[in-house]
Amino acid sequence: METKRLNKAISETGYCSRRAADKLIEDGHVKVNGETVGLGVKVTSKDTIMVHGQLITKEVENIYLAFNKPVGITCTTDTKIRGNIITYMNYPERIFPIGRLDKPSEGLIFMTNDGDIVNKILRSKNNHEKEYIVTLDKKITESFIKKMGNGIPILDTITDKCFVEKINDYTFKIILMQGLNRQIRRMCEYLGYEVKKLKRVRIMNIRLNNIKPGKYRSFTRAELLTINKLVGNSSKTEEAS
Hints:
Layout: E1 4-5, H1 6-12, H2 18-26, E2 30-32, E3 35-36, E4 42-43, E5 49-51, E6 54-55, E7 64-69, H3 85-89, E8 96-98, E9 106-112, H4 115-121, E10 130-136, H5 142-150, E11 153-154, E12 157-158, E13 163-166, E14 171-176, H6 183-190, E15 195-203, E16 206-207, E17 216-218, H7 221-230
């Protein structure tokens, strides 16, 4: 009978990501067959898993959604926080975001109940592209475009080289393969600019296109197949970046 690590088994039910499952296990909130267990335990389909005293099972198929997050919505599963993404979407099944998009920003974010794919996509070394359209408070110079593309010192590091293209006097496109905290805003601030609007329009092979703000759609079969190919060589380690 197939065995798998406990954190992977929990994530596959859609309860949470592997990383969050590790924390639950470490804190003693997980029982297998009625016994509290530690990290590294392996389980089979015949084992019963309980989190906070609740039996968890895979009750629904995997869900993969492309959501156009409006400005003002916070990418957290904590429903006590006002304006959280879970309450806003009001989806009938348990889902959670893959990665983040800060509160003042808008655009594409993935929502799923598949903790395993979360782990793979968030591995920073897999270099999955994210494309943004950014509007600034003053005119963009050629020097700005060049410096943004060559790397900016923020958060005790230098950002990786990336593709940057001027769209008009105040707007540019940038494609990142990093995910530093508020990266684009910090990069622009370093060069003396303020971001007025930041919109993510693509993650990997999926584009925002005509999804209206606050609305979502399911991945197509072709999109999901492509994503699975893109993350096929993802690290199998237990912790997402």
